Amino acid sequence: MDVQELMSRTIGGVEVSQVLVALGSAVVLTLLLRLLFGIAVGRARKLAQATSNDVDDLLVELLDKTRTLFIGLIVLWGAARPLDLPPEAETVLKGILVVGLHLQFGFWGMGVINYLVARWKRQQIEDDPGMATAVGAVGFIARLGLWAILGLTALGTLGVEVSAFVASLGIGGVAVALALQNVLGDLFASMSIVFDKPFVIGDFVQVGDLAGSVEYVGLKTTRVRSLSGEQLVFSNSDLLGSRIRNFGRMNERRAAFGIGVVYGTPPEKLRRIPGMIQAAVEGCEHARFDRSHFKSFGASSLDFETVYYMKVPDYATYMNAQQRINFELYEAFAAQGIEFAFPTQTLHIVPPEGAGGESAGDGAGSASPSDAS
User: Which of 155, 10, 12, 26 is nearest to 88 (CA)?
Assistant: First the structure.
């Protein structure tokens, strides 16, 4: 069989020569377009780098994600249009083109999602490092949803009945959700923690009788470093179901303390004590005096109560201020001759009836009638 005879043969009613010409033209044109497209993308990237906004960077990335296969399918479709293809070949070619188009849309959608996720991460990561986990989870969900939608759309375009398929996916999804309800509960709890922000990394929190600084917020667990050094691991769903005391959100720290002085302290010294306490509190940096009062007559002391606020929530700063107040009050009380009270009891002994001097005298001074005679 010579070449001329081979070329004159038909495939599905189309001569081999026409098929080869169409394929050759498609390959050459695809390579040429790919080369020109690459040059254009390179120049566009240089121009985008010279600008301050990042929207043009996104456009360049989307152009760069345009696959050669996509260009080839478009060119092949155009080259096959003049051919009188049989219906079966038209259907196959259309199916290939539909799949290629949806794949390309998927690559473009991935580029947009990656751009938005990276931009969001840059904006939030400095304020809240825990957002990195949530951003990654959101990106994963968005990519999964994108490919699921494109897959169903492609099947529908190809004439596949997707309603039964979607229904089966729904039933399977319910089964999977029931099997993984704890994991999914922790996953959505993680998203709630990140977006609602009851706490962020670095906050000091107390959950029940456990307390520590938040180190990491993951998809399933949150890890807290306790004051004694060990790491506490909380399930995210359990954590959201608990009452959380977030000391990291304190604008001011309220501090209250009491002191007692001994009974017998002169009234003029008692009246000076609130002023002495106020001077000691106001002498501390970041402290705001609220009140100091002679509160009550205690069992063994005259009690004073004082309240002040620290303008910073840091616990170490509060303890430094309280220590300074205690030192100053101790020195001031010593200078004024005011004694601090401590638990004491005074025992008053009452002699029993019929005993003692008066009773004895009465007994000694009395006499019986026989003695008088």
Answer: 12
* Of 310, 326, 328, nearest in space to 318 by CA: 310
pLDDT surpassing 90 at residue 241: no
Taking only Cα atoms into account, the Rg of the chain, rounded to an integer number of angstroms, comes to 43
Residue 220 has φ and ψ, to the nearest 5°, of -115, -35
Task: Say if residues 317 and 247 touch (Cβ distance below 8 Å).
Answer: no
pLDDT value for 38: 77
Q: What sign does the CA torsion over 276, 279, 284, 288 have? A: positive
How many whole angstroms separate alpha carbon 289 and alpha carbon 283?
10
Mean pLDDT lowest among 28-32, 165-169, 367-371: 367-371
Buried b / exposed e across 88-123, counting CB within 10 Å, b at 16+? ebeeebeeebbebbbbbbbebbbbebbbebeeeeee
- Asked whether the whole model's pTM tops 0.70, one would answer no
Torsion of CA 167, 173, 175, 181, to 10 degrees: -150
- The class level of CATH for 253-336 reads alpha beta
Q: How far apart are CA 256 and CA 290, in angstroms?
A: 10
Every domain range in the chain assigned CATH 3.30.70.100: 253-336
Q: How many residues are listed for the chain in this entry? A: 373
Helices 68-80 & 87-124 angle (0-180, nearest 10):
150
Residue type, 214: V
Residues whose CB is less than 8 angstroms from the CB of residue 232 and which lie 6 or more positions away in sequence, other chains included: 210, 212, 223, 224, 225, 226
Residue 246 CB contacts under 8 Å (≥ 6 apart), including other chains: 198, 199, 203, 204, 205
**CB-based contact 281:306 (threshold 8 Å):** yes
pLDDT in the model for residue 258: 95
Nearest partner of 189 among 233, 223, 237, judged by Cα: 237
Q: CATH 2.30.30.60 residue ranges in the chain?
A: 184-249
State both tokens at 248. Answer: 């990291």
Mean pLDDT computed over 106-117 = 84
CATH topology of domain 184-249: SH3 type barrels. (2.30.30)
Cβ–Cβ under 8 Å, residues 111 and 105 = no
